[in-house]
Amino acid sequence: MKIVLDAMGGDVGPSVNVEGAVEAVNEWDIEVILTGDQKQIENELQKFSYDKKRIVVVNCTEVIENSDKPSTAIRKKKDSSLVVGFEMIKEKRADAIISAGNTGALLAGGLFIIGRIKGVKRPALAVPFPTPKGLSLLVDAGANVDCKAQHLYEFALMGSLYMEFVAQLSKPKVCLVNVGAEKEKGNELTKEVYQILSSSNLYFEGNIEARDIPSGYADVVVCDGFTGNIILKLFEGVAHTFSDGLKSAVLSDWKSKLGGLLLKPAFRSFKKQFDYTEHGGVPFLGVNGLVIKAHGSSNSKAIKNAIKQAQITHEALLINKIKDRISEMTDNGNGIEGENI
């Protein structure tokens, strides 16, 4: 498998991307193509030992910054590390692309250069998050702030296929984010989506309120990107606040310190469960190629695990599964907008 890694993406730049790539090729049977400033990348590569045949550097003279307008940057910065990587995916010279850089540019490149899967109107950002039962998937987590009912159905469909074939979960339960569990609750959008999901062949379990999302009741949590991004950021904020508060309480006096020392292994295990670096990256579902978004503040461990996620998703043939399901629905005369699909 060949994976393109945008070496210039992220808050830190080439150092963590290069280190993560080296760790990945030293552990797994993959090849990594690093796109970006060749001099900077090679200076970082000199610090490590690795199979020189499995990491290739492609020089690029431009970088898409976080401050750049996504669509404009994709059109104008043709020799950027991101655009060059997308062209490799389009030309089938690589199997996946990963970037910790500009999220909007990553989505714009996926749409304008690679293109959408036929039949999918809106690609979505799918974010796995930990629960007491394992992992659930939040989709959309921010790619589409304004949505129609049909878009949310697509998110549910693609999220279900991800959990079935990548997470190896049989019959994933789908729930729709709403202000109440009753089907009559919500705005016009959620009411319409409820009807579509109820008449589909997905394992739809109805509405879910925000307080029940962390429980893991739903395997696939569906909402528009505006709501999903708020949920995601709230999760992050609560986790940080809880962690800081717990640390302060443990260090408050000698008795608490002693108890904290005894509980340190349990705390470490709990923290690992909620550590985003363990998952590395999240996919844009609906793009006709494997596009993985890594966190902007990713360290080398997160980049390494993003590469692993790309490998797992590629081997699960997720994009083909989405294509096949949509094609099957069209061939049956229902279309992606039909009922009983």
Please describe what this structure looks like.
The chain is of the alpha/beta class and 341 residues long. The protein has two domains: 166 residues, Isopropylmalate Dehydrogenase (3-Layer(aba) Sandwich); 154 residues, Isopropylmalate Dehydrogenase. It has twelve helices and eleven strands. An eleven-stranded mixed beta sheet has the order 3-2-1-4-11-10-5-6-9-7-8, with helices on both faces. Helix 1 packs across helix 2. The two termini are 33 Å apart.
Kindly list the characteristics that best describe this protein.
globular; 11 strands; Isopropylmalate Dehydrogenase; Phosphate acyltransferase; 2 domains; single chain; eleven-stranded mixed β-sheet; disordered C terminus; 12 helices; alpha/beta; 341 residues; Phospholipid_synth_PlsX-like
Offer a concise description of the structure.
The protein has 341 residues and is of the alpha/beta class.
Spell out the blueprint of helices and strands.
Layout: E1 2-6, H1 14-27, E2 31-36, H2 38-45, E3 55-59, H3 70-76, H4 81-90, E4 96-99, H5 103-114, E5 124-131, E6 134-139, H6 149-165, E7 173-177, H7 188-198, E8 203-208, E9 220-222, H8 225-250, H9 254-262, H10 264-273, E10 281-285, E11 290-294, H11 300-315, H12 318-331
Parallel strand pairs: 1-2, 1-4, 2-3, 4-11, 6-9, 7-8, 7-9
Antiparallel strand pairs: 5-6, 5-10, 10-11
Pathway: Lipid metabolism; phospholipid metabolism
Main location: cytoplasm
Pfam families: FA_synthesis (PF02504)
